[in-house]
Write a structure and sequence with these properties.
6-stranded parallel β-sheet, Rossmann fold, Ubiquitin-like (UB roll), single chain, Elongation Factor Tu (Ef-tu), domain 3, 3 domains, alpha/beta, 6-stranded antiparallel β-sheet
Length: 324
């Protein structure tokens, strides 16, 4: 059986196991969340031995060259000596400087990193707790505009991470890893129309992307559509409406699935998929950003492609919930 050693702790892999599964079975603590290679929270570095290339898919060339791999999707088929130590500055400590509720189910955190963290609006970071619990959160802040990192945390009933984050006092330090993800604005086609579709806290990266595009001088139309199950699931409505007033090229539309008597006139009752079909049936030449529930994003990705958007112009980071 392959021998796995992580920072002095040893495990033996069974046939068909991933490196992460073998380590966890042996009681070795490894940060992890999605377990499908999306969040990158289980990143380890091989100090001896060669990890299977399948475990390095999606990583930057610089990380692959230094032996980093995603342990959750790396088959444990060879001996490996690994480290989780942050010798290359992949982790950063940040201080909680603001914590507030944006709605009954959304917590806004603003963090001050100990040193500058290079990132692009719309990327995500991982929060790592001391016990190894790790979760991914998109950045709603914009470099150069905001002096903090802004995260929108969905408050999950009995959620281990979200419940813990809600109780943290100001001044608490947090361990972060990242940034990662390819869902961000790239300058170069300032007249191209942009469509930003998101549900729930999928608004966080879209809020950052829209402001980033505007700050970089994007002149083409920018349509931001945010959906929720009910009115309580929508937030930042006033901020987005004011942003659209200041920038004529930006339009903002909110939609909900559940009708209600108190529903404001500007909020329509529709699913994101139906609204997409009604208002954006032809997307050839558009750039599209999709964020939110992974099943919804998968559905919308197919829909915008069938509406004419090129695959290279569809950006979405796959967020999946942690397994039970």
């Amino acid at each position: 059986m392959p021998r796995l050693e992580l920072d002095g702790q040893v495990a033996s892999a069974q046939p068909g196991e991933t490196v992460l599964a073998a380590l966890l079975r042996a009681g070795v603590q490894v940060g992890n969340s999605c377990r499908v290679g999306a969040c990158q929270s289980c990143l380890l570095r091989a100090m001896a031995g060669t990890p299977d290339p399948r475990g390095q898919q999606g990583l930057k060339d610089t990380l692959r060259a230094r032996g980093y791999f995603l342990s959750c999707i790396t088959p444990a088929e060879t001996d490996l000596v690994m480290t989780a130590a942050d010798d290359d500055g992949l982790r950063v400590t940040a201080t909680l400087c603001e914590s507030s509720l944006l709605s009954d189910s959304v917590l806004r955190l603003r963090l001050q990193p100990e040193h500058e963290l290079p990132y692009r609006a719309g990327q995500f970071i991982n929060i790592l707790r001391d016990d190894g619990l790790t979760r991914s959160y998109s950045l709603a802040s914009v470099p150069g505009q905001d002096a903090y990192l802004e995260l929108h945390v969905r408050l999950v009933p009995n959620g281990r991470m979200s419940g813990w984050l809600k109780t943290l006092p100001l001044g608490q330090t947090l361990s972060l890893r990242g940034p990662a993800g390819e869902c961000f604005y790239v300058a170069g086609r300032p007249e191209q129309p942009l469509l930003l579709l998101g549900s729930g806290t999928g608004l966080a990266p879209l809020f950052g992307i829209a402001r980033d595009a505007l700050s970089q001088g994007h002149r083409g139309p920018i349509a931001l559509v945010h959906g929720g199950r009910s009115l309580s699931g929508l937030y930042y409505r006033q901020e987005l409406a004011e942003l659209a007033q200041r920038h004529p090229q930006l339009s903002y539309q909110a939609c909900v699935l559940d009708d209600a008597p108190e529903l404001p006139a500007e909020v329509v009752v529709s699913s994101l998929a139906d609204l997409l079909a009604q208002k954006y049936a032809k997307l050839a030449g558009w750039r599209v950003f999709l964020c939110g529930d992974p099943l919804l994003v998968q559905t919308l990705r197919r829909a915008v492609f069938l509406a004419g958007a090129s695959r290279r112009d569809i950006a979405a980071d796959p967020f999946v919930t942690a397994p039970t």
